[in-house]
TrEMBL record:
Domain Dedicator of cytokinesis TPR repeats region, residue spans: 3-159
GO MF entries: guanyl-nucleotide exchange factor activity; small GTPase binding
Protein name: DOCK2 protein
Listed GO CC annotations: cytoplasm; plasma membrane
One Gene Ontology biological process: cell migration
Superkingdom of origin organism: Eukaryota
Any matching Pfam family: TPR_DOCK
Name of the gene: Dock2_2
Length: 211
């Protein structure tokens, strides 16, 4: 909790002193995002790994600090305004890692950051290829590492489709991108599920589908 208060103080200082033109400090903001994501993803905050009694005790005393700092990270991202482009594609990986944490409120509030990244790059270059390439690359390694589930796939699809359909220029390429990512995620999850399965025929089938 004390670390969370300190990180929040860092965030306030960044907004007040290192955001405006002439005072913006890319490295400080980059350090903030990496620090905040590292805090959010630390083992001691992953409540789903604890017993029900311990989970209830922590929630009663502290709440879920992952959702709290996730909201702050989201707000800090939007505060960046035109400086966002400086963090694409480098911040795609850390944001992905954050959204994969299995906490519904956190996922719901932070997945829209991906659409904002797409939009930011598209407005500058008329494509979001850097964002897309980075997300696909990072998604592969994250799912292989045990992250991601069916709920995440469904949330990613529904939230980003809603965002894309509300923007005329990104409607078609955005929907194609969402279909690509959800298709890949589905195959990655299938592949992970059968990695230790004795049925080698199904394992080979999943490998072929993934390739």
């Amino acid at each position: 909790r004390e670390f969370l208060r300190t990180i929040d103080r860092f965030a306030a200082t960044l907004r007040e002193m290192f955001l405006q033109r002439g005072s913006f400090e890319l490295q400080l903001w980059n350090n903030y995002f990496h620090l905040a994501v590292a805090f959010l993803t630390q083992d001691s905050l992953q409540l789903e790994n604890f017993s029900q009694a311990k989970r209830t005790s922590i929630l009663d005393k502290y709440g879920d600090m992952r959702a709290t700092i996730g909201t702050t990270i989201r707000d800090m991202w939007y505060h960046l305004g035109p400086c966002k482009i400086d963090f694409i594609p480098a911040m795609v990986g850390p944001i992905l890692e954050m959204t994969l944490v299995p906490e519904l409120e956190l996922r719901t509030s932070t997945i829209p950051i991906f659409f904002d990244m797409m939009l930011c790059e598209y407005q500058l270059t008329k494509s979001f290829s850097q964002f897309e390439d980075e997300l696909l690359h990072k998604l592969d390694s994250e799912v292989e590492g045990g992250r991601g589930d069916e709920q995440y796939k469904e949330l990613f699809e529904s939230i980003l489709l809603d965002c894309c359909r509300g923007h005329a220029e990104l409607a078609e390429p955005g929907q194609n991108f969402v279909a690509l990512v959800t298709g890949l995620l589905e195959r990655l999850l299938d592949y992970r599920a059968v990695m230790n399965d004795e049925n080698k025929t199904y394992s080979m089938s999943c490998t072929v589908n993934l390739l």
